[in-house]
Amino acid sequence: MQRPPNFYSDNGLDRADRLRGDTDWLAARLAAASTRFVPLWRTRSLFDPPAGAEPGAAPRAVLLEAAEAAALIARGGERIFLGLDAEDRAYFALDLSSLDSPDHEPALAGRGSFADLRAFGPLLPRQEGAILAYARGMVWWHDRHSFCGVCGARTESRQGGFQRQCSNPDCGAAHFPRTDPAVIMLVHDGADRCVLGRQKVWLPGMHSTLAGFVEPGESLEEAVAREVEEEVGLAVEEVVYHSSQPWPFPSSMMLGFHARTRDSQLRVHPEELEDARWFERDFLLASPENEAFRLPRPDSIARRLIVDWLEGRA
Ligand SMILES: [Zn+2]
Question: 108 alpha carbon to ligand 1 midpoint, in Å?
Fold first, then answer.
């Protein structure tokens, strides 16, 4: 069953990989008046209204036009071709991380403030949030792959930013953007109870699904079973795929599942979780969100997994 898209997916852009190798086309689009640039500064996106504006003002992503971006491009930041929108406008991510203080750049004066996408994600129009997430993930990957993982030489951007090529002719390794698969699962008893846990660093009262990274040499189903056993000591016997979510904070791909268990005795691993408990469906449906109990953030697939199970869409 195809479910509605999760936050940070479905950005509406045609990624147009057929055009990534056409350097003349890319150069023309970088200078075109219709082109839009998504600025990133040290993983932060640009938002308007500025931080500190009146409470309740809805944030919007600030995209720059070619004329505004020209002075910033001249400073040498990485540009990554993201794709084309329905009006054939090209979108590029523009990495401004080499600037010491972007708030003082004349080209950005009055345009807003840089902030972490996670602060505003749930409040943004969905496609806007998805474009910022996409740009964030790409810029982060470039930032951490300036040197070849094989020989240590410098790498250079190719294919509109979808490849980094080792500059050492004796090596020549090509590196491609990567995303790390993680499984995230709501464990339930096949009836009206589910398991939620919490980590010490989370907001007070927040309880969420279990999750963990997929390891080499295991299937997703095995990763679900292993993580559930490690974190709460339950054996799962039915693992059903739900949906996925890009989570570029910094580089994860969340793969969501519902998992049924016949066990009921929790054995919480103290190094993994501060607490984990069985929760009744009726409690969760009626529960206020406060410091005693709250569900995970509204833009997370964790919340989606819980709400769909509560409403019978497991
Ligand atoms: Zn190399």
Answer: 37
Question: Would you state the structure tokens that stand for residue 295, as one six-digit string?
Answer: 């569900």
What is the pLDDT, as a whole number, of residue 233? 97
The residues that bridge with 155 in the sheet, in sequence order, are 166
d(CA 142, CA 138): 6
Task: Report how far residue 139's alpha carbon sits from residue 134's, in angstroms, rounded to the nearest whole number.
Answer: 9
CA of 173 from ligand 1 middle (Å) equals 5
Can you tell me the distance from the alpha carbon of 223 to that of 215, in angstroms, rounded to the nearest whole number?
A: 7
- Give the global pTM: 0.93
Cβ atoms of residues 291 and 205 within 8 Å: yes
pLDDT < 50 stretches in the chain: none
Give me ligand 1 centre to Cα 289, in Å: 51
Percent over 70 (pLDDT), the chain = 97
Closest CA relative to residue 133, chosen from 254, 271, 238, 288:
254
Cα–Cα distance for residue pair 283/185, rounded to 1 Å: 20
- Chain-centroid distance, C-alpha 112: 22
Compute the distance from residue 135 Cα to the ligand 1 centre, in Å.
25
What is the distance in A from the centroid of ligand 1 to the CA of 175? 9
User: Residue 170 Cα, ligand 1 centroid: separation in angstroms?
Assistant: 8
Check: CB of residue 209 under 8 Å from CB of residue 281.
no
Calculate the CA dihedral of residues 241, 242, 246, 248 and round it to 10 degrees.
-80
| Dist. CA 111 → ligand 1 center (Å) | 40
CA 91 – ligand 1 centroid, Å = 30
Cα 73 to ligand 1 centre (Å): 27
Report the distance separating Cα 276 and Cα 230, nearest Å: 12
